[in-house]
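Checklist before submission:
- one chain only
- standard amino acids only
- sequence pasted in full

Submission:
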Amino acid sequence: MSTTKSKTPTLATVAEHVGVSRMTVSNAFNRPDQLSPALRERILLAARELGYGGPDPAARALASGRSGSLGLVFDYSLTAALTDPATAGLLLGVARECESRSLGLTLVPLLEGADDTHVRTALVDGFVLYSVTRNDARLRAVRERHLPYVLVDHESADGAQRVNIDDRGAARAMAGHLLGLGHRDIALVMGWEHRALTLADAQADSIYFVGAERLAGWREAGIEATATVASGPGHDRETGRVAGHRLLDRPDPPTAVLAFSDLLALGVMDAAAERGVDVPGRLSVVGFDDIAEAAPAGLTTVRQPHDEKGAAAVRLLLDPDDRGSVVLPAELIVRSTTASPRLQERSPCS
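Returned file contents:
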């Protein structure tokens, strides 16, 4: 019986087989312009025959000091991020900027049970962190790795660079619009089956910077602390529909709704249509984001540049002459889903 043990092929194995130096084999994989096409093809053919797949990526990154990829950390599952229009827009902005610089992109979604493992093992040169909480284990892991990072939709933290919009000012504008029309019975729609029953409850429970800023903006505009909060499971259009029905089931349904997102606002409008409640005749609705579906629906909303958020974060991360944080513009877009409340006494919705 043979006692010879098969060994895992290495770069040196290929070099010896072809009769070239290890540097030449390395160039065949990493710097093909340094070799003639014929020699490179001979080396790659030998590597395939020997079962050698190329230099280890981690070792290559360690040797060069760069991986050629960035990490994007976000507080959603991967499927939620790809199907939520606002998050998908930011991801597109990050991807476009990476593509323009010939960089790869590693996605680090919220994975149950994974905690910070993927951040600690990701082969990247830096991170963009989107809408994570201040106590997120992944943010701590990024800091402990001492890699550069940029925060998006996040409060100031340890002098880190940030990309935000003025969420508080935008919230003041949307609430001020409804108050200016004469609405006083204004309800709020949030997602994730929020346990808050009032605006004050929601502020006390808020752990996300964006949510805290928008709630504060609504309060500053004059929305009462006792304003009703409705929610439903998830954070999509169906969530808004469920929340909308819950509001319309009340003996004193509101005359207007402020929704945390356009998807939620569109769901509220779905519920109103199912009840025969005219928008805006009996119910005004305002969203946030100005996603593609907002304009065809006539939705009054706040427009924010999601893709530019992502692109700006990558530029902050990589451009040495651009070190300041960025606040991008947000604009209230008034369309046909808001109007003055009806003057006659309203009957409960059935």
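Reviewer check: The radius of gyration is 27 Å.
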